[in-house]
């Protein structure tokens, strides 16, 4: 589900988002709860300015709940009225998302109904970078599995509205934003969370970044996973090498680096957030 982004693709994607936003009342911006800033394309603030704008911190089941709570407050403090943490994969709290969509459009609905319309249709679209869970949320909202076209930018096809709960309709094609590539640390975080292709970075670089972050911010979890008590006894690359041997991968540093990333994504190190509000205050 990953794509290579070039300036041409970004332009196409941007124009597509602009076109899509013309059609809707509500923009459901989806970010990865583990990296709510790093998985966010800042352009959306501007593009969605004239729309009701919801922020979904998806994959909350994978994120550190303490941090997720802080992120919800963070976005609220930025002036976002409609922010929700969600686990779309296990379908928790979709009802709350529906409620939020209704709240966000209540004023408009009221205005239209005052003019005599019975129950005006609310139109929404999910937008976000690849892999943040847009299609999953869409499917949850619609209540059955719908085929959603791949995430290549610039793909034109007939856009259909899918009926969701109540009088909500969702565009069948999510809007795809590109991830931020301008900052290496952001790149490592995106890679660690599987938001961008593993092949864009060397797995060992990402694994070393992750180990460093965990050493500082999730010491207990890292100790439990590695059974190494003194994590600072050696440099992080040396630690990765030691773990490679310890986990039975002999000298295959790169292979183990990838395994470590996969285990991280599968919660084997616990619920971890790589963007921390405290680091961004
Ligand atoms: P996209 O449209 O934004 O590109 O993302 P999509 O919905 O395809 O989801 C990407 C991956 O993230 C999928 O996993 C999906 O199951 C998973 N996912 C989506 N929402 C959540 C969530 O709230 N929690 C968790 N834990 N995962 C979520 P996949 O690797 O393609 O398949 P699988 O791992 O589900 O088998």
From TrEMBL:
<dbReference type="GO" id="GO:0003924">
    <property type="term" value="F:GTPase activity"/>
</dbReference>
<protein>
    <recommendedName>
        <fullName>Ribosome biogenesis GTPase A</fullName>
    </recommendedName>
</protein>
<keyword id="KW-0963">Cytoplasm</keyword>
<dbReference type="InterPro" id="IPR027417">
    <property type="entry name" value="P-loop_NTPase"/>
</dbReference>
<dbReference type="InterPro" id="IPR019991">
    <property type="entry name" value="GTP-bd_ribosome_bgen"/>
</dbReference>
<dbReference type="Pfam" id="PF01926">
    <property type="entry name" value="MMR_HSR1"/>
</dbReference>
<dbReference type="GO" id="GO:0006412">
    <property type="term" value="P:translation"/>
</dbReference>
<feature type="binding site">
    <location>
        <position position="175"/>
    </location>
    <ligand>
        <name>GTP</name>
    </ligand>
</feature>
<comment type="similarity">
    <text>Belongs to the TRAFAC class YlqF/YawG GTPase family. MTG1 subfamily.</text>
</comment>
<feature type="binding site">
    <location>
        <begin position="58"/>
        <end position="61"/>
    </location>
    <ligand>
        <name>GTP</name>
    </ligand>
</feature>
<comment type="function">
    <text>Required for a late step of 50S ribosomal subunit assembly. Has GTPase activity.</text>
</comment>
<dbReference type="GO" id="GO:0005737">
    <property type="term" value="C:cytoplasm"/>
</dbReference>
<feature type="domain" description="CP-type G">
    <location>
        <begin position="14"/>
        <end position="179"/>
    </location>
</feature>
<dbReference type="InterPro" id="IPR023179">
    <property type="entry name" value="GTP-bd_ortho_bundle_sf"/>
</dbReference>
<dbReference type="GO" id="GO:0005525">
    <property type="term" value="F:GTP binding"/>
</dbReference>
<dbReference type="InterPro" id="IPR016478">
    <property type="entry name" value="GTPase_MTG1"/>
</dbReference>
<keyword id="KW-0547">Nucleotide-binding</keyword>
<feature type="binding site">
    <location>
        <begin position="131"/>
        <end position="136"/>
    </location>
    <ligand>
        <name>GTP</name>
    </ligand>
</feature>
<keyword id="KW-0342">GTP-binding</keyword>
<dbReference type="InterPro" id="IPR030378">
    <property type="entry name" value="G_CP_dom"/>
</dbReference>
<dbReference type="InterPro" id="IPR006073">
    <property type="entry name" value="GTP-bd"/>
</dbReference>
